Amino acid sequence: MYKLIALDxxxxxxxxxxxxxxxxxxxxxxAKEKGVKIxxxxxxxxxxxxxxxxxxxxxSGEDFxxxxxxxxxxxxxxxxxxxxxxxxxxxxxxxxxxxxxLGVNIHAFSQEGCITPKLTKYSILEGEINGIPVVxxxxxxxxxxxxxxxxxxxxxxxxxxxxxxxxPEYLYEKYTIVRSAPFFLEFLNKEVNKGVGVEALANSLxxxxxxxxxMGDAGNDEHMIRYAGLGVAMGNAxxxxxxxxxxxxKSNNEDGVAYVIDQFVLNK
Length: 268
What we know:
- This protein is α/β, with parallel strands linked by helices.
- The protein is built from ten helices and 16 strands.
């Protein structure tokens, strides 16, 4: 029996209009009634997940969230940290210099919110999606020791792809690098990804790997899909994500999450 379901949000739980269908909400509620723990696992900060946690009644001392692609795992009510693994100002300085060489824009997440040296449409979009402030900041003011949760190169898809093609190889040894959207490339602590975050939570709850379902659609979901006892790719997922999944469900606009819950948890 599956005991934990970890759900990516954008492109998975959420339809294209960023809403959760009533069919999916009902399936999630029925899974909860069977004792299955539902966990949202997103690249977003907690602020960008909060309203969906509330909508799904996932705020209690028994509920948890995986945010920032696994960098922070915490209780949704008490805010108690299960795991927290971040970057430093030195990483931001390095990647900012590289972004200028590659001709792409950049932003990062710190205690101030989303910080960027230059306001672009993708940084504005980040703020709008997550309901957080976007602060234009001189990165030269950031201390080497300052905590930076994650760093993102943000650019038009074709320009970003060219930058990816020219990333130095050593970066893949130094950071976890995931493409969460055609216009977002994310850099995280090397020890961080959604799979590590879900695993840390499962271990803390005494839940075995084979009792976990993970669902996602994009590059930042690959680690948790590989980790899960049942790794699920959405019908709208990147082809490389479908290739590593155990099961491919319907798309996010066709209640793919509900379909998996019905098939594998509720046994409809």
